[in-house]
Amino acid sequence: MSAVLEARDLVAGYGGLTVLREVSVSVDPSEVVVVLGANGAGKSTLLSALSGQLPLTGGQLLVDGTPVRNARPDVMLAKGVSLVPQGRGTLTGLSVMDNLRLGAVTRKDKAEVGTDIDRWFTVFPRLAERRDQVAGTLSGGEQQMLAVARAMMSRPRLLLCDEISLGLAPVVVQELFVTLAEVNRELGTALLLVEQNAELALEIASRVYLLEVGEVGASGSAESFRDDNSIRAAYLGY
Ligand SMILES: Nc1ncnc2c1ncn2[C@@H]1O[C@H](COP(=O)(O)OP(=O)(O)OP(=O)(O)O)[C@@H](O)[C@H]1O
């Protein structure tokens, strides 16, 4: 079985600054993987590179075992890799409905777009009540729900989530993680989570990569990371 997405020896950065140094990670179909790392380790940069937002200066991306040429965001989206970027990926000037419709823009099965919008309104009733409201006036939690639903409207096989709990109340974070676990279980969507709330992420993840200054310092099962005293002290705070 090929990974939905595999990164081999990725090198990427900004101008003259190399952030990712030969990073290799993979996510299997329906797998939940979490990337941990200190501030500035390169976690967001990794998700940008995996979603085609940041050009690679070395290495390769493979989808279903096949190398991706020209990994631009639209290409990666069409291949089933969708990003929920840090800081809420919504178009703030557009309504909730229009954000969701635009999330489906790459899909060929347009007939089912309405059904999917209804599904996400069932998952997030607060969005249904605000369907005509401009996204920029939603609360932080509502915007994050919209960002997840919008990214899911492309029916991705892999959802990349960059710090979706940032700035949200614990109860909203809990709700979002329950939803992500359901999405994974019921739709089979694989998840790659970059998350400050490591404890919650480890609850739903089966595997972990630890990024250290742009390199994979360690990897293993979520269980082994939870049982590791130094990891617990550094990332789980107990
Ligand atoms: N657009 C950019 N231009 C230049 N340098 C950048 C840019 N974005 C990030 N960096 C730098 O790249 C390095 C990695 O940043 P990145 O945001 O990927 O880390 P992170 O692990 O996600 O950190 P955090 O947990 O603090 O969000 C940092 O040193 C950062 O200053």
From TrEMBL:
Pfam families for this protein: ABC_tran
Single Gene Ontology BP annotation: L-amino acid transport
Keyword tRNA processing: no
Protein name: Branched-chain amino acid transport ATP-binding protein LivF
Protein origin, superkingdom: Bacteria
Annotated GO MF terms: ATP binding; ATP hydrolysis activity; branched-chain amino acid transmembrane transporter activity
Record keywords, A-Z: Amino-acid transport, ATP-binding, Nucleotide-binding, Transport
InterPro entries (alphabetical): AAA+_ATPase (IPR003593), ABC_transporter-like_ATP-bd (IPR003439), ABC_transporter-like_CS (IPR017871), BCAA_Transport_ATP-bd_LivF (IPR052156), P-loop_NTPase (IPR027417)
Record flagged with keyword Nucleotide-binding: yes
Coiled coil region boundaries: none
Family: Belongs to the ABC transporter superfamily.
